[in-house]
Amino acid sequence: MASVVEFKKLDNSIKKPSLDPLMKLVRTDLDRVNSTILEHMQSPVHLIPQLAGHLIAAGGKRLRPMLTLGAAALCGYSGDRHVKLAACVEFIHTATLLHDDVVDESELRRGQETANTVWGNQASVLVGDFLFSRSFQLMVMDGSLHVLKILSGASAIIAEGEVQQLITTNDTTTSETAYLEVIQSKTAELFSAAARIGAVVADRPKDEEDALTSFGTNLGIAFQLVDDALDYSARQAELGKTVGDDFSEGKITLPVILAFRRGTEVDRKFWKRTLEELDQEPGDLEKAQELILKYGALDDTISRARHYAAIARDALGLFSDGEPKNALTEVVDFCVEREF
Amino acid sequence: MASVVEFKKLDNSIKKPSLDPLMKLVRTDLDRVNSTILEHMQSPVHLIPQLAGHLIAAGGKRLRPMLTLGAAALCGYSGDRHVKLAACVEFIHTATLLHDDVVDESELRRGQETANTVWGNQASVLVGDFLFSRSFQLMVMDGSLHVLKILSGASAIIAEGEVQQLITTNDTTTSETAYLEVIQSKTAELFSAAARIGAVVADRPKDEEDALTSFGTNLGIAFQLVDDALDYSARQAELGKTVGDDFSEGKITLPVILAFRRGTEVDRKFWKRTLEELDQEPGDLEKAQELILKYGALDDTISRARHYAAIARDALGLFSDGEPKNALTEVVDFCVEREF
Asked: Where are the alpha helices (DSSP H) in chain A?
């Protein structure tokens, strides 16, 4: 018995995986990315930097641009194209968030009022368009048609994924496969492009570009699966984070898909009432969390995430060991173990 | 007296300027543009071609892509890059319209229900994003960084113009200069880019590229001025076209700016009530039309348009005479004389 207690103690003292090693590796570059973002979101139309700055300054992990910087480091890149391109990636992400919040009618993001709450949907749509255009201007300044092809293709696929998500919203019969297609498009595609660009700027051979593409794709899927699990997590609520956004919007994510398929007819009636008809009462979110727990749907969503995380980790296999590889591997661990 | 009557008769029989000569000149190319549009708006997510097709099939004059085709003809271009790039221009325009209709909460466009009325704002925002991305993918396929720079720059300026328009909406003190800046960005910039690309693909010297840029810019300003005049025109109403959209949305266009500045205190109270507070009663649109007529604001808006049209016409001066130049000159006349 004593040994078990000891083990638990030890386990508690083990440092949780974090983004810190990657942050340490790319800190100087990331500062330059932030300056590039600030510089290029300027406009004589003051509402644009005001609104864009609200979201960009609100924090966020800068995970996607850090992937570009980390992948460039992994590929031994010593130029500075990765800085501008990491800023492009963040601009595309920010434009997507602005439009997402309009589409989802979200009032809060990262604990702050969303831009559409403060300035209205109209301004959010248009400033999103501006950031998206600005991102392409930056890519053109970089001048690589290969990069332009990757990022314009990713943007189209992200939009397709968002439309597909809109279609599956409120549809409790959505299959796990259809759900996976949505998250692959709306989330994993930009992770994939972000990482891949690291190999492209470093002019690495195709197998390394493919490896980073696979790394990004699988990391992105794992990231979104965990995100969708956290939205129903009791622990998340304990930490003071918002839970239940997907539930209140009627989004059909994997925890629900599993609980729906494993549930009884009575359970399914509950899901249909709350998520299809959006007829929700106080206590319904707790009831949803209870059902998801009962059918092991949260644990299994995390298990699925671990599967993709394992693929992402192995994708890094052909790169030489060292600080960049360790840092990117820890990003994978972080994306699965994170509580936020 | 008899001669005056004769003159009027003659005048009535003179053919109104139209887009027909340009249409005749570029018909084969335009058919290929339409095929390119149809081909590239496809997606496995069926809602995308469905929604995009609703707007694209709804007609529209295809004026912007025709400018690219006409300018290419003027420059003696014999390749086929202009077809794909004209499709890019139309995609950007279509994406802008989708987002505009969301921002303006419009229910009708070209006499049909808007996409946001049929499929909701959410789908319109996301399909707009898709078309915008698709446009950049097409440009990348063309492979010219020069063209990419022109069109990504134009897209950013269009978005800036749209945000600026949003800010001036409901502000009756908007100056003519501020209004001109808005229409230059939101409308003239794409006309300008569309025409300029004709010179770029034909690899013409800078003075011709500049001439077509100036042609497009000034044509675009004239086009928008007339558009804004038509929205208050009694003749437009006679033709069964919608009038009063700008009025009901509280958009501050030149007819209003002039009538406001030339009006009495009582008139200004009317404009403030109807356009700033959007407190509108039956008969207010007619009252607005009456005030605009009384102060010559409609005629003077058209006069301003004639000024820019003259510059556009002269910009074509350095090109050799012939069918393309005649056709493009008639486009200028059409944009000022049109009743729709």
From this structure: 2-13, 20-40, 47-57, 63-74, 81-104, 115-119, 121-142, 145-168, 176-183, 189-201, 206-230, 234-238, 245-249, 254-262, 265-271, 284-294, 297-315, 323-337
Secondary-structure class of domain B15-145 per CATH: mainly alpha
Q: Which of A39, A47, A141, A166 should we substitute to test contact with B (largest number of B Cβ atoms within 10 Å)?
A: A166
Q: Determine how β-strand B108-109 pairs with β-strand A112-113.
A: unpaired
- Residues of B in Cβ contact (< 8 Å) with A47: 163, 166-167
Is the ipTM value over 0.90, yes or no?
Answer: yes
CATH 1.10.600.10 domain extents, chain B: 15-145, 204-319
* Chain-chain contact of B44 with A160 (C-beta, under 8 angstroms): yes
* CA-based radius of gyration for chain A: 20
CA distance B139 to chain A (A): 9
Instruction: List, for residues A194-232, the tens digit of each pLDDT value.
Output: 999 999 999 999 999 999 999 999 999 999 999 999 999
With CA atoms as reference, report the closest residue to B306 among B71, B93, B17, B7: B17
pLDDT tens profile A111-150: 778 888 888 889 999 999 999 999 999 999 999 999 999 9
Q: Could you confirm whether domain A16-337 is CATH 1.10.600.10?
A: yes
Contact B152 A130 (CB under 8 A): no
Task: Inform me whether the C-beta atom of residue B102 falls under 8 Å from chain A C-beta atoms.
Answer: yes
Contact A52, A94 (CB under 8 A): yes
Instruction: Name the minimum distance, in Å, from the CA of A110 to any CA of chain B.
Output: 22
Alpha carbon distances (Å) from A204 to A19, A192, A247, A321, B324: 25, 16, 43, 17, 48
Distance from CA of B41 to the nearest CA of A (A): 11
